[in-house]
Amino acid sequence: MTPTMTNSSNATDQTSVLVSVAWVHQQSNKILCVRTQGQDRFFIPGGKPEQGESLPEALVREVHEELGVRLRPETIQPLTVIQGPAYGRPHCTLLMHCFVAEPETVDFSAHAEIAELVWVDQHNKSLCAPAAIQLIDELAMFDTHNSDSIF
């Protein structure tokens, strides 16, 4: 069920809120991104929680469905929450809960609806949807202030 909130005094002008989870996987200062079939932009791997599912449970399920990778649940750590317009969904705000976690294996590939994988950094971030770009920019900014950063 998608929560709805009004964004003005006009009750007919409503914005839905899309809650999602995202696995931020970094390698060689690049972030793994995926493109689903029929989409023109890349996204951070993840998706929407099912009813009754916790955010970490949704993360484990979505990453396995999309990449064939099992995350180690005990290593899941929240990283940040990205909020902004949901790409391709007018009148929809995205709340993307980003996590880091160790995979059981580093051997992954496109599964289910995933058409393509790509490693993204500041140089090719224009391939991504706005929320992924926002995350990449946030990680890059954090990196300039923290020597222990993942990016």
UniProtKB/TrEMBL annotation:
Domain named Nudix hydrolase: residues: 15-141
Pfam families: NUDIX (PF00293)
Hydrolase recorded as keyword: yes
Keyword Cell cycle assigned: no
Classification via CDD domains: NUDIX_Hydrolase
Coiled coil: none
Cofactor: Mg(2+)
Single annotated GO MF: hydrolase activity
Superkingdom per UniProt: Bacteria
InterPro entries found in the cross-reference section: NUDIX_hydrolase-like_dom_sf, NUDIX_hydrolase_CS, NUDIX_hydrolase_dom
Keywords: Hydrolase
Name of protein: Nudix hydrolase domain-containing protein
UniProt source species: Terasakiispira papahanaumokuakeensis
